[in-house]
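Posting for a labmate who doesn't have an account.
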Amino acid sequence: MNALDVVIVGGGMITYDLLLPSVYHLQRTGYVAGIKVCALDTIPLKALKSSVEMSEAFPGQDFEAFPPVSEPEGNKYPELYKEVIANMKPRQMVVVAMPDQFHYTVVMEALKNDQHVLCVKPLVLKYEQTLEIEKIAFEKGLFVGVEYHKRFDRRSLIAKRSFELKQFGDFVMGEAKLIEPYFYRSSNFQNWFTCDKTDPFVYIGCHYVDLVYFITGLKPVEVSVSGIKGKFPNGNEGYMWANGRIRFENNALLSVIDGLGYPDEAAGSNDQSLQMFFEGDHKTGMIKHDDQFRGIEHSYLNGIGCAGSHFNYVSPDFYKLVPWEGQGYKPVGYGFDSVSASITMACMIENEVQGMSETDSLVKRQEMILEVDKKGIIATPANSYINELVVEAARVSILNDGEIVTIEYGNDPRVILRSKK
């Protein structure tokens, strides 16, 4: 099997917490060859290089840093990723881990240089951009995966199958919640999570909109999002809290509460849950997932984590490093499963077409991409495009004080302020 070289563009929190450890494990299991990480400056790269946890889990493994960590921390390299991608062999893998507003530019740069792509969610902030990405990638036979990892949570997969077996009834009402820690406000978020760029609903609420669509197949048709502003430590203004309401094509409603405000001293790392109610024949059905609490409680001698809390609700299901039969530790959980699925799919495509003519290779690549689109487990531009419509509508709504924005489908899907229809 030919392994893929991987370039991660962005060295921040998600790279540290999930992406690089997952890629390291895929390297030692034969799916990934060389690893490069490109960032705006050397600060996050030094943190990755000096991580004791990373070196204990992946002994002997390393990545090539761009810029080199010997460069002064104050130097910025906003265009360096273009050079790194341009120097890759064709049909390798670019992992996009930048702030939301930069996804489109980096993804397009990767496709221009004939690279497969894995992008953190949301893929882009405009529906027309996801259409462009889907078209170019398919024409070139390049795989694009979107890291909606909740699709890989086993409880989500169980719920999806039970819904398909008609064990719940018709979805009518639901509520979701995802509150990230307060300490996010002191992170690099304060430099990009500003009111004009994004908000908590777009950043994390999209997970649960995608999940309801993943389980039920129902398309959202109306979006209303209201936000509460606050100041970051550096003085920048951002939406610290957001409340969204989504109406689906069958008239069902989902409310979504999001924010950067889960207490640092609290036991969980965040607060997240989903509850859905269904109408059946003279009875109702229900799905209830308390995602922040998975039945494990630990109390440590010394506090751990950013706030040093002693008592913790421990979730083994999203991402954890655990002992295994090999050296160091391995990542487990649906976060790793999601990253692995996209990278191994790109690897499978490249290995499947070895020895084929250019024409036959393209046909086979496109067949495999269409199969992934249809299966709908890995999020792709073709099977998760409703998310771009929802986040586009959400941005229009929150910047218009929560006005309802309608999503119209058909031959030319678009979002429209209801008051202007």
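Reply:
Got it, the structure tokens are right above this. The domain at 154-317 is CATH 3.30.360.10 (Dihydrodipicolinate Reductase; domain 2).
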